[in-house]
Amino acid sequence: MLQVDKADPPGQLARLGKDSLLPMPPPAGSGIGDNRLREVSTPLSFSGFTAAALEQFAPQLRQLGLEPRQGISTGGAPQDVMGDPSKLQPGSMISVELMTGDMSAGADGTVTAIDGNKVYAFGHRFLAVGPTSLPFTRSEVITLLANVNTSFKISSARELMGVISEDRNSAVAGTLGTRAALVPLDIAVTRNAKPVETYHMKMVNDRFLSPYLLQVRCSRRLTPLSGPPGQAA
After folding, report:
1. Chain centroid to CA 199: how far?
2. For 160-223, where are the alpha helices, taking DSSP H only?
3. pTM (2 d.p.)
4. Which one, of 184, 88, 177, 98, lies nearest residue 140 by Cα?
5. What is the residue-level pLDDT of the chain in tens, covering all 233 positions?
Protein backbone atom coordinates (compact mmCIF):
# COMPACT_ATOMS: atom_id res chain seq x y z
CA MET A 1 0.00 0.00 0.00
CA LEU A 2 1.36 3.40 -1.00
CA GLN A 3 0.03 6.28 1.10
CA VAL A 4 0.09 9.72 -0.49
CA ASP A 5 -0.13 12.69 1.86
CA LYS A 6 1.64 15.34 -0.18
CA ALA A 7 2.80 14.81 -3.73
CA ASP A 8 6.20 15.96 -4.95
CA PRO A 9 6.24 19.13 -7.04
CA PRO A 10 5.31 18.47 -10.68
CA GLY A 11 8.68 19.72 -11.84
CA GLN A 12 10.49 17.12 -9.76
CA LEU A 13 8.29 14.32 -11.09
CA ALA A 14 8.90 15.49 -14.63
CA ARG A 15 12.67 15.51 -14.14
CA LEU A 16 12.62 12.04 -12.63
CA GLY A 17 10.59 10.74 -15.54
CA LYS A 18 12.78 12.36 -18.17
CA ASP A 19 15.99 11.01 -16.68
CA SER A 20 14.78 7.52 -15.87
CA LEU A 21 12.79 6.55 -18.96
CA LEU A 22 14.44 6.94 -22.31
CA PRO A 23 14.74 3.42 -23.77
CA MET A 24 14.91 4.55 -27.38
CA PRO A 25 13.85 7.94 -28.78
CA PRO A 26 11.88 7.92 -32.03
CA PRO A 27 13.83 8.52 -35.25
CA ALA A 28 13.94 12.15 -36.30
CA GLY A 29 12.94 11.18 -39.82
CA SER A 30 14.65 10.36 -43.06
CA GLY A 31 14.57 11.92 -46.48
CA ILE A 32 16.08 14.60 -48.66
CA GLY A 33 15.49 18.30 -48.24
CA ASP A 34 11.97 19.08 -47.05
CA ASN A 35 10.63 15.64 -48.01
CA ARG A 36 10.89 13.46 -44.93
CA LEU A 37 9.32 10.30 -43.61
CA ARG A 38 8.48 10.35 -39.92
CA GLU A 39 7.51 7.45 -37.72
CA VAL A 40 3.85 7.42 -36.73
CA SER A 41 3.37 7.77 -32.96
CA THR A 42 1.71 4.92 -31.07
CA PRO A 43 -1.54 6.03 -29.37
CA LEU A 44 -1.45 5.50 -25.60
CA SER A 45 -4.86 5.74 -23.92
CA PHE A 46 -5.23 6.78 -20.27
CA SER A 47 -8.54 6.19 -18.49
CA GLY A 48 -9.29 7.87 -15.17
CA PHE A 49 -6.51 10.47 -15.47
CA THR A 50 -7.18 14.19 -15.59
CA ALA A 51 -6.22 16.30 -18.59
CA ALA A 52 -3.72 18.18 -16.38
CA ALA A 53 -1.89 14.94 -15.53
CA LEU A 54 -1.57 13.99 -19.19
CA GLU A 55 -0.42 17.45 -20.20
CA GLN A 56 2.29 17.38 -17.54
CA PHE A 57 3.85 14.15 -18.83
CA ALA A 58 2.93 14.42 -22.53
CA PRO A 59 6.32 15.86 -23.64
CA GLN A 60 8.19 12.89 -22.19
CA LEU A 61 5.77 10.41 -23.71
CA ARG A 62 6.14 12.03 -27.12
CA GLN A 63 9.92 11.76 -26.83
CA LEU A 64 9.37 7.99 -26.68
CA GLY A 65 7.23 7.97 -29.81
CA LEU A 66 3.92 7.73 -27.92
CA GLU A 67 0.87 9.96 -28.31
CA PRO A 68 -1.06 10.25 -25.02
CA ARG A 69 -4.81 10.61 -25.16
CA GLN A 70 -7.70 10.30 -22.77
CA GLY A 71 -9.53 7.02 -23.13
CA ILE A 72 -12.88 5.79 -21.91
CA SER A 73 -13.71 3.83 -18.79
CA THR A 74 -15.41 0.45 -19.17
CA GLY A 75 -16.11 0.00 -15.47
CA GLY A 76 -12.97 -1.77 -14.28
CA ALA A 77 -10.13 -3.97 -15.45
CA PRO A 78 -10.35 -6.21 -18.53
CA GLN A 79 -11.90 -9.61 -17.94
CA ASP A 80 -9.42 -11.74 -15.98
CA VAL A 81 -10.08 -14.80 -18.12
CA MET A 82 -8.07 -16.12 -21.03
CA GLY A 83 -9.88 -15.39 -24.28
CA ASP A 84 -10.56 -17.62 -27.24
CA PRO A 85 -7.60 -17.39 -29.68
CA SER A 86 -9.96 -17.97 -32.60
CA LYS A 87 -11.36 -14.46 -32.03
CA LEU A 88 -8.05 -12.98 -33.16
CA GLN A 89 -7.07 -12.81 -36.79
CA PRO A 90 -4.94 -10.53 -38.96
CA GLY A 91 -6.51 -7.09 -38.80
CA SER A 92 -7.98 -7.57 -35.31
CA MET A 93 -7.39 -4.88 -32.71
CA ILE A 94 -5.42 -5.62 -29.54
CA SER A 95 -4.48 -3.48 -26.55
CA VAL A 96 -1.16 -3.80 -24.72
CA GLU A 97 -2.23 -3.15 -21.12
CA LEU A 98 0.33 -1.23 -19.05
CA MET A 99 -1.98 -0.57 -16.09
CA THR A 100 -5.41 -1.94 -15.21
CA GLY A 101 -7.90 -1.35 -12.40
CA ASP A 102 -9.38 1.90 -11.12
CA MET A 103 -7.18 3.68 -13.64
CA SER A 104 -5.75 2.19 -16.80
CA ALA A 105 -3.24 2.81 -19.56
CA GLY A 106 -2.89 0.84 -22.76
CA ALA A 107 -1.52 1.03 -26.30
CA ASP A 108 -3.76 -0.09 -29.15
CA GLY A 109 -2.53 -1.77 -32.30
CA THR A 110 -3.46 -4.14 -35.09
CA VAL A 111 -2.62 -7.82 -35.43
CA THR A 112 -0.33 -8.42 -38.42
CA ALA A 113 -0.11 -12.21 -38.45
CA ILE A 114 -0.78 -15.28 -36.31
CA ASP A 115 1.34 -18.43 -36.60
CA GLY A 116 0.12 -21.16 -34.26
CA ASN A 117 0.23 -19.62 -30.78
CA LYS A 118 2.56 -16.83 -31.91
CA VAL A 119 1.13 -13.40 -32.65
CA TYR A 120 2.78 -10.49 -34.47
CA ALA A 121 1.25 -7.01 -34.23
CA PHE A 122 1.61 -3.24 -34.68
CA GLY A 123 3.90 -3.45 -37.74
CA HIS A 124 6.23 -1.05 -35.94
CA ARG A 125 7.95 -0.77 -32.59
CA PHE A 126 6.24 0.07 -29.31
CA LEU A 127 9.29 1.20 -27.30
CA ALA A 128 11.91 -1.00 -28.99
CA VAL A 129 13.11 -2.34 -25.63
CA GLY A 130 13.69 -5.87 -26.94
CA PRO A 131 12.66 -8.71 -24.58
CA THR A 132 9.75 -7.72 -22.37
CA SER A 133 6.60 -9.10 -20.73
CA LEU A 134 3.47 -7.06 -21.37
CA PRO A 135 -0.09 -8.44 -21.21
CA PHE A 136 -2.38 -7.83 -24.15
CA THR A 137 -6.12 -8.13 -24.59
CA ARG A 138 -8.53 -8.36 -27.44
CA SER A 139 -9.91 -4.93 -28.11
CA GLU A 140 -13.17 -3.75 -29.66
CA VAL A 141 -13.33 -0.55 -31.66
CA ILE A 142 -16.20 1.65 -30.51
CA THR A 143 -15.81 4.50 -32.96
CA LEU A 144 -13.32 6.37 -35.12
CA LEU A 145 -12.55 10.02 -34.43
CA ALA A 146 -11.59 11.62 -37.72
CA ASN A 147 -9.01 14.38 -37.62
CA VAL A 148 -7.09 16.12 -40.39
CA ASN A 149 -3.80 15.65 -38.51
CA THR A 150 -4.21 12.30 -36.73
CA SER A 151 -7.39 10.24 -36.81
CA PHE A 152 -7.61 7.60 -34.09
CA LYS A 153 -9.88 4.86 -32.84
CA ILE A 154 -11.64 4.73 -29.49
CA SER A 155 -11.59 1.15 -28.31
CA SER A 156 -12.38 -0.95 -25.25
CA ALA A 157 -10.14 -3.69 -23.86
CA ARG A 158 -11.84 -7.06 -23.46
CA GLU A 159 -10.53 -10.43 -22.29
CA LEU A 160 -6.85 -11.33 -21.88
CA MET A 161 -5.23 -13.03 -24.85
CA GLY A 162 -1.55 -13.46 -23.99
CA VAL A 163 1.81 -11.77 -23.45
CA ILE A 164 3.92 -9.55 -25.70
CA SER A 165 7.45 -10.87 -25.19
CA GLU A 166 9.38 -9.04 -27.92
CA ASP A 167 9.34 -5.33 -28.77
CA ARG A 168 11.45 -4.80 -31.89
CA ASN A 169 11.80 -2.06 -34.50
CA SER A 170 9.59 -3.80 -37.05
CA ALA A 171 6.88 -5.24 -34.80
CA VAL A 172 5.88 -6.57 -31.40
CA ALA A 173 5.53 -10.32 -30.95
CA GLY A 174 4.07 -12.53 -28.27
CA THR A 175 2.41 -15.77 -27.29
CA LEU A 176 -1.28 -16.55 -26.97
CA GLY A 177 -2.64 -18.19 -23.84
CA THR A 178 0.05 -17.01 -21.40
CA ARG A 179 -0.04 -14.51 -18.52
CA ALA A 180 2.36 -11.73 -17.53
CA ALA A 181 3.38 -11.14 -13.91
CA LEU A 182 1.88 -7.82 -12.80
CA VAL A 183 2.73 -5.60 -9.84
CA PRO A 184 -0.20 -4.78 -7.51
CA LEU A 185 -0.48 -1.07 -6.75
CA ASP A 186 -2.72 0.25 -3.96
CA ILE A 187 -2.70 3.98 -3.23
CA ALA A 188 -4.44 5.70 -0.32
CA VAL A 189 -4.99 9.46 -0.56
CA THR A 190 -5.30 11.35 2.73
CA ARG A 191 -6.05 14.93 3.72
CA ASN A 192 -5.23 16.17 7.22
CA ALA A 193 -4.39 12.60 8.23
CA LYS A 194 -7.88 11.45 7.21
CA PRO A 195 -8.42 8.92 4.41
CA VAL A 196 -10.06 10.43 1.36
CA GLU A 197 -9.85 7.86 -1.41
CA THR A 198 -8.21 4.53 -2.22
CA TYR A 199 -7.18 3.27 -5.66
CA HIS A 200 -6.43 -0.32 -6.64
CA MET A 201 -4.48 -1.13 -9.80
CA LYS A 202 -2.05 -3.57 -11.33
CA MET A 203 0.79 -2.46 -13.57
CA VAL A 204 3.47 -4.10 -15.71
CA ASN A 205 6.73 -5.22 -14.14
CA ASP A 206 9.06 -3.39 -16.50
CA ARG A 207 12.31 -1.56 -15.70
CA PHE A 208 11.43 1.34 -18.00
CA LEU A 209 7.67 1.60 -17.75
CA SER A 210 6.95 0.77 -14.10
CA PRO A 211 8.78 3.75 -12.49
CA TYR A 212 7.28 6.14 -15.01
CA LEU A 213 3.73 4.83 -14.60
CA LEU A 214 4.09 5.19 -10.84
CA GLN A 215 5.15 8.82 -11.20
CA VAL A 216 2.21 9.63 -13.46
CA ARG A 217 -0.15 7.82 -11.10
CA CYS A 218 1.09 9.73 -8.04
CA SER A 219 1.12 13.13 -9.69
CA ARG A 220 -0.75 15.70 -7.62
CA ARG A 221 -2.45 16.78 -10.82
CA LEU A 222 -4.02 13.35 -11.12
CA THR A 223 -7.18 14.07 -9.18
CA PRO A 224 -9.06 17.07 -7.77
CA LEU A 225 -8.74 15.38 -4.35
CA SER A 226 -5.17 16.69 -4.14
CA GLY A 227 -6.41 20.24 -3.63
CA PRO A 228 -8.92 21.89 -1.30
CA PRO A 229 -12.50 20.57 -1.47
CA GLY A 230 -14.23 21.73 -4.62
CA GLN A 231 -10.98 22.92 -6.18
CA ALA A 232 -9.46 21.00 -9.08
CA ALA A 233 -5.75 20.28 -9.09
Report:
1. 17
2. 209-217
3. 0.73
4. 88
5. 554 444 444 433 334 444 444 455 555 555 555 566 777 778 888 888 878 878 888 888 888 888 888 776 555 556 678 889 999 999 999 999 999 888 889 998 999 999 999 999 999 889 888 999 999 999 887 777 676 666 667 777 889 999 999 999 899 999 999 999 999 988 888 888 888 888 888 999 888 788 878 888 777 545 554 444 444 33
